Amino acid sequence: MKKNFKGLSLMSLVFTLLTNFVYAQTDSTEVASIYGFYSYSSSLMNASSASELTIQGNASHTSTGVQLTPASSGQFGGLFINGRTFTSVNGLHVEFEYEMKNGTALGGTFGDGLSFFLYDGAVTSPTIGSPGAGIGYAYNRTKDTYASQRKAGLSGAYLGIALDEFGNFKSKRFQGDSRVNGIAGVTWSQSTSHVTLRGARGAAINTTGLGAGFTGYPVLVTRSTLSNTGTVGRILQADRSYLATSNTLASVFDLRNNAGEFRKVYLDLIPHFTSPTTTDGFDIKVDIQTTQNGTPTNIINYYHYKMSVPYTENANPQTTDFNTSDTEGGATSQTLDATVPAVLKLGFAAATGAAFQQHIIRNVKLTLPYAAVANDDVTSTCKFQPVNIPVFANDIAYKGAISITTPPTGSNANIDYSTFSFTKSSDTDLTLYRKKVTPEGTWTYNKSTGIVTFNPSSGFTGTATMTYTIKGRTVKDSNGKITEPYGDTAYRSVPATITVNLKTTGCIYSVISNKMVTQGVK
């Protein structure tokens, strides 16, 4: 009897034949998105050659992500995903990871923080806003003595969200070297570690300092992550005043992850429907996850960012910014035009001053709210032995109308098995790939069962990987109007990875006899 490790058992051979000839589905195509939106993801690690990315200032590409600033004073950097636009009609869901660490504190606080922002997709050459407390989004006006420090706010700005470690992004200032509207006269119980939203770029008001790029960007809402007691936040009201926020955080924490612990931000912009066919801006939700696989903490809970926002310009000179006077004038009531641009682009910025730290971002994902979510799968197999992978077990798609009061529900039962696709050639590739052959082996998909089968090649060693994406289902009413859009290509998940590791122990192989049988002589 001789063991043959190069052969397959009869059952394995039959399994392989069935996999390749019965279960394997042919490729097909899907319909292009009616919304013109395609999901985007990038690790930002060693991403210097990515054509859609541009950096400014002190930002640099590194192996761990984009470093917006190093841990040194007076730094200022930005990153724009300027080569991609995203339609705004269905809102937007953004995820990214960040690090704020190292550096030197001032008065016990590090600085300044980082911002991520949305701007008008029609802007082809955007410029980040002011450094320091502006964190690359807001403007900075000055008197003539400090004219070199004047800086317009972000070009085409629609919405800025700051992770403001030092705490100045929300504040109104009027001094010689810094004049910007904001919240004034508040004694904060926790003034640092704030998540703060500022609104869109305003219109030119006059020629004495409040020109284009130097108005607007009003503070909409702010909330410290450090405490649930006292005055920890404010929210802009229709009468232009600021009311104390009342939401309680499930857990409190510092935005800074000095020890290198995990931090991940989730931003949702959900269209705010005033009627079944009419919207008024977005409802904005910001969550932060502080532990790997932990439950995110809700910081901003569906702030309604309207298309018309009353606010106050409250850092005005008595006569003009273009002299050496430090005399402040009266505040003026303004109304911000926050009409949602037809298409949006996304960017990031960070700044340091006398207080400084390192700012890094990575693993950026942009999808529509309630797009399908595919999660990575890991399994193992032995040499020559196929393996079945139920990839949908940890994935979800959504069902139900889009609403913040009664959100759609997520479940793997909502996945449309026919929408599965292996690795696509581009975000706009409409082919649904059901079979992929790689040097490591053959990947096949069964749309009836939702099972992926990997059949290793004879030369397979080590690890094999493949990516895939999924969608939910579209539902229409009796008049043909879409009520649940989750089967549109715009709601396709970002890719998840299937990993198959070759086991080297615990394998049982077929034993095939090659013993010669001697025939009797008649």
Keywords:
single chain, 39% strand, 522 residues, mainly beta, eight-stranded antiparallel beta sheet, nine-stranded antiparallel beta sheet, disordered C terminus
Show the helix and strand layout:
Blueprint: H1 10-23, E1 28-29, E2 40-42, E3 53-57, E4 60-62, E5 65-69, E6 76-87, E7 92-104, E8 113-120, E9 157-164, E10 173-175, E11 178-180, E12 194-198, E13 219-224, E14 233-236, E15 242-244, E16 264-275, E17 278-289, E18 297-305, E19 308-313, E20 332-337, E21 343-351, E22 356-367, E23 377-381, E24 387-389, E25 397-399, E26 409-411, E27 421-422, E28 431-432, E29 435-438, E30 441-446, E31 451-456, E32 463-469, E33 474-476, E34 482-485, E35 496-502
Parallel strand pairs: 23-35
Antiparallel strand pairs: 1-28, 2-22, 3-6, 4-5, 5-22, 6-21, 7-16, 7-22, 8-9, 8-21, 9-12, 10-11, 12-13, 13-14, 14-15, 16-17, 17-18, 19-20, 24-31, 25-26, 27-32, 29-30, 30-31, 32-35, 33-34
